[in-house]
Amino acid sequence: MKALIPAARDAKTRPFWRDKNKHLLPLANTPMIVYALSALERAGLRDIGIVIGPNDEDLKGFLGNGERFGVSLSFITQNEPRGIAHAVMSAKEYLGDDSFVLHLGDNIVRENIAMLLDAFMQADAACLLALAKVRNPERFGVPIFEGEKIRGVEERPFKPQSPFAVTGVYVYHPMVHALLPELKVSARGDYEISDLHTRLVQDGQNVHWVEVSDWWKDTGQPEDLIDGNRFVLEGLRGDREGSVAPGVVVKGPVRIGEGSKILGRSVVLGPAVIGQNCLITDSYIGPYSSIGNNVELHGAEIENSVVFDGVRVASAKRIQASILGEGSIVASEQHTKPSGHRIIVGEGSVVDL
């Protein structure tokens, strides 16, 4: 059985990640797509297709042939992003006549995918959906139930008919390839995967489902990255390759990268990740923080935040629930009159002063 990961660059840009494929965004210093690859590999799925766009050389270059992730990768080009169902259509030749797993590259599901495969086989289904109860189902595809059976799926409904969301892991019988070309473009201009599920039900096919409890999805909001970082760090195992000076306090699971130095009266409370070649002096790094590579922190306080590579912070003001983009600088204001904050704010940013 093969797997497919749609990972083409989307039209949305972020002030902290411009001109890069979002699937390379780091969670605990690891690009988010790696978590999907690892989940598939653990389930024994090692032939994986990656759907990319014509300008996704950065993603293709990072992933390579997949050998270092224990998988074999093939790349399928989607000329323009027209939705998840369109990505599957683009991969029809690669997927062939076998059942397959579709795993969105911006989703993390902790449940073992092998369990989903077993449920799919036992149910003799055309499709298996992994559902999760969420607080805001209107942001996702939402199943419509009749008793315990799915009778349709609505994409981002104004009034959801159930508290469940369809997560980003699906299993399909190859029969779906015959139905995909019959889908119509939605009001968003996409070929919606939810429409495929509704069409399967209308054709009398068995759309089976299982409930999963631990799931994270990037919906494009800055807080999603902070939540995803926290989600990943909850399972962290500590490892120290860098150096920690006498007097530094390190508690809980903390991973410290090679070449990094933690000096002075610094305190690091896990779960937290510190990348390679960082210099940290007299600073506090609180739980659920990820510090990238080549970062300098001097007298800083950071908690529940994502700090990208090459950042420099020299300010005693607490930074929490924040994202510091690559190469950014945070420094204390000069104590001259009149005083003020000197800031550069990217499009779509949120600043609390």
Q: What's the tally of helices?
A: 8
CATH class of the largest domain: Alpha Beta
The number of domains is: 2
Portion in beta strands: 25-35%
CATH superfamily membership of the largest domain, which one? Spore Coat Polysaccharide Biosynthesis Protein SpsA, Chain A
- Using DSSP, what is the number of strands? 30
Q: Which structural class should the secondary elements be placed in?
A: alpha/beta
Distance between the termini: 52 Å
The biggest beta sheet reads: 7 strands, mixed
Which spans have pLDDT < 50 for at least 5 consecutive residues? none
Q: Would you tell me which CATH topology of the largest domain applies?
A: Spore Coat Polysaccharide Biosynthesis Protein SpsA, Chain A
Q: Overall mean pLDDT score? A: 91
Silhouette = elongated
C-alpha-based Rg, rounded: 22 Å
Roughly how much helix do the residues carry, as a percent range?
A: 10-25%
Q: Output the strand order for the largest sheet.
A: 5-4-1-6-11-8-12
Protein name: Glucose-1-phosphate thymidylyltransferase
GO molecular function: transferase activity
Pfam family, one: NTP_transferase
Organism: Candidatus Terrybacteria bacterium RIFCSPHIGHO2_01_FULL_48_17
